[in-house]
Amino acid sequence: MDVHTAAETGTRARTRRAILDAAVTVLTADPAAALADIAAAAGVGRTTVHRYFPERAELLTALSKHVWDQVVEATHRARLDEGTAAQALGRLCQEYFDLGTVLTLVFNDPAQAETWDECSPTDLAVLDLIGRGHRDGTIDPAFSAAWVRDLLWALLYSAWQQSTTGQVSRHDALDACLRALRKVIAP
Amino acid sequence: MDVHTAAETGTRARTRRAILDAAVTVLTADPAAALADIAAAAGVGRTTVHRYFPERAELLTALSKHVWDQVVEATHRARLDEGTAAQALGRLCQEYFDLGTVLTLVFNDPAQAETWDECSPTDLAVLDLIGRGHRDGTIDPAFSAAWVRDLLWALLYSAWQQSTTGQVSRHDALDACLRALRKVIAP
DNA sequence: TACTAGTGGAACATCGATGTTCCACTACGG
DNA sequence: CCGTAGTGGAACATCGATGTTCCACTAGTA
């Protein structure tokens, strides 16, 4: 069957996906959740989880990669090199926001820090974008690139917080997030 | 001896304090850390930890209260009713920043959420302060009170992040944090 | 000096999460 | 209809964290 090299068959891919999605949901709520909880959330048996990810660490690694791939895609969709840097940063903010609380998972997990490499191409692209904003005058040079990047994440975290606790609609949360971002980076 | 009602003797108070401080440090780095790690960090035996906090949950509760007390004190020191609301919010930001990463602990712990009551007097005082800012014209009314409060935490988180990773000095991190805060809330 | 509070460590029992094995069941394509 | 991929569940072994008990040690103090 050569399962390892070829793409997995439909059923297997679907089950694998279901487990990863459930893991995102459950682990976001409780990073120390047991595999049994994840299996239940995915609607599969605990045995099946072990069939796809023999060890917990492997599930976490795959999960990290799963989320990471989404980040790379989202960053790509934001077309960082089009328009002014401030506009591109706004698009990036929207794209990341759509990924949901997923990101807080890997973002806060110290064990997966190596996967979330600060020097990854994506992170560098974001820093470059902010540097471009410093030069094209659409981002306040008084704030360092690293600070603006961290600020972006912090604002997203707040926005997710607001929309999760149910006080605010997703749309309003994103709107406030974008307005705050623009105000801060405005030169 | 009536240990329970009277204040604890010097030695006991000191040991208790050492355990709580160590717990803050260790649990901030890894929320799932074992009691043995906390004991080691505190420089006491694991048995001693159990002597002060028979169950892990009791340690977490005491820890939460420990941190919470610091927040209440910091809020008080910020003298929220003096000067303009924007000035007071700046002072509050500084006071909270000085508490360090301690706050991210309770802030992120879902199990301790009830202690961190959203409707606590302190939280209400902060929301009132922002409301005052809306009226006295020093805080942009386009941002709701809850959003500004969450924003404050988000900025603090970023600032701590920056100063922890060692790229930026504590002073510079706080400075950037305050400047960002002022820019966002400026009407 | 003797007494006591406080401590550290060894040893043990317990519990929950993890990982493994095995078997029965179901869906599905030949 | 039969064989196979995929699955669920029971049962078991293991491991680490937790909680408990007991005893020996040390620093103060009457």
From TrEMBL, chains A, B:
Domain HTH tetR-type, residue spans: 13-71
Classification via InterPro entries: Homeodomain-like_sf, HTH-type_TetR-like_transc_reg, HTH_TetR
Keyword Protein transport among UniProt keywords: no
Aminoacyl-tRNA synthetase keyword on record: no
Residue ranges: DNA binding: 34-53
Keywords: DNA-binding, Transcription, Transcription regulation
Pfam families according to UniProt: TetR_N
Protein name listed in UniProt: Transcriptional regulator, TetR family
Species this protein is from: Actinokineospora diospyrosa
Lineage: Bacteria, Bacillati, Actinomycetota, Actinomycetes, Pseudonocardiales
